[in-house]
Amino acid sequence: MHQIIITYMSNNVSVFENNISSNSPKQIAREFKFVIDLMPQMVWATQPDGYHDFFNQRWYEFTGLSYEDTKDKGWSLVLHPDDYERTWKVWQKSLDTGTLYEIEYRMRKFDGTYNWFLARALPLMDDKGNILKWFGTCTNIQDQREILEELEKTKKNLRVSNQDLNKSIDELSRINLELDNFVYSASHDLKAPLNNLEGLVALLEPSEESEPNQDEIFKLIGKSVRRFKGVVNDMTLMAQTAKDNHRMHNVDFPVLLSKIKSDLSHLINSTGAVLNLDLDVKYIQYPRKEIRSILSNLISNGIKYRYPNRPPKISVRTKVISEEILLEVEDNGRGIEVENISEIFDKYFRINSTIEGSGLGLFIVKRMVENRGGRVEVMSKVGEGSRFSVFLKPQE
Amino acid sequence: MVVDDDATNNMICQFTIKRVNKEADIKMFLNPEEALASIKEEYSSAREVLPTVLFLDINMPNMTGWEFLDVFLQFDEWVKDQFTIFILSSSIEDFTEKAEIYPFIQGFLSKPLKLTHLEEIREELLQPLLK
Question: Global pTM?
Fold first, then answer.
């Protein structure tokens, strides 16, 4: 091996001649080997056909192998199996064409671990362009690789947390908007009974003449208080659906519907409403409060938005449709204009519309149903009536 | 005349007006369409002027106060001239834009109707007569 270096040195001795002309070729070769072994990189050389015939000290230190082990094609045995083929392809191409060899690959260290290297090589040619030898280096880039990987990982994590943050911002903006609109509509919904109370109380204030309608005023005060309470209850219910903390029950539809009927008895009796029940499904596993709220909202809407001078007819049906349970509430009321259909579940932007109520009903229904994986559909014809179809996902 | 779908509000109006004027002839309508029909029938055929103050709500399910006014505007001048119209609403919306569209609206009152409202209205209506 020293022989080879010396041969090479003697051919190139002119490079050094001017500076260290006093030294003998042997001395120059010694110095040159010293410098090459000092370098932090691996240095290697091959014959024109790629026969590896020289490595510097770094190579032996890293691989833990001898010259005999790694000469000729032996060097490639320390390549990572995944990089082996690719490396040979690139190396062979450079040998065939005499062009720059440059590749990144992993090599096995003496302790069995692998490190990434950047390998480069160029051929030394004679005057006629014939390749005399190849000279190459391998630079350990393991640290850079690790830093790059770390950076990529950090970038990816950042992207993910950025996405999460954006999602949270969207969610928060939505909640904020909901809250804004909630405050707006709540103030509107609460104002009506509160205004009435103010007016009624003013009428009870002492004056020169005694109020002849005191009993009636007290009755109206009671009514206004109930209405106020109703709005507050709806608001509470809405806050609860947001929290999703209702327990499961085995809900008995016939029993529940008779309860709802008695809750709404005032509305039903005053309008002459008729309720038809057609219950294929008698029981459902679902939070009772939610089913009750859904049905009572839809039924009372059907009665409240009746067609003028036509006694309301409300049909309530339950059916199994593939995997879902369908609750259907159909009325013969005023129906919903096409342009309003998309807004009826949206309590927020319909305050200015002509319909007044607590304004939270359908919004609560939709939110409750969708929170548990279901959906609400509506079909309506102006002047003929509406049909609300609630598809409920059976709950665990 | 009171047109509002809120029965309680109408009762408050009735009691309050009675406090100011026991003899007042008060008509209350929960349904604006019925009110329009009644106006058309009674006021068209009236032989003498029936000076009427109308308290009109805005948010009503079948017909809004604005829609009511659009129909009312089509009535004969003779009918319209008998009315002094006040909007009586709990709404917190700003009505200034609408006021420009319906200049004949005498005023906007926020619910509930109060004795002070009525006293102001009486003074306003009496003033032209006193002159």
Answer: 0.53
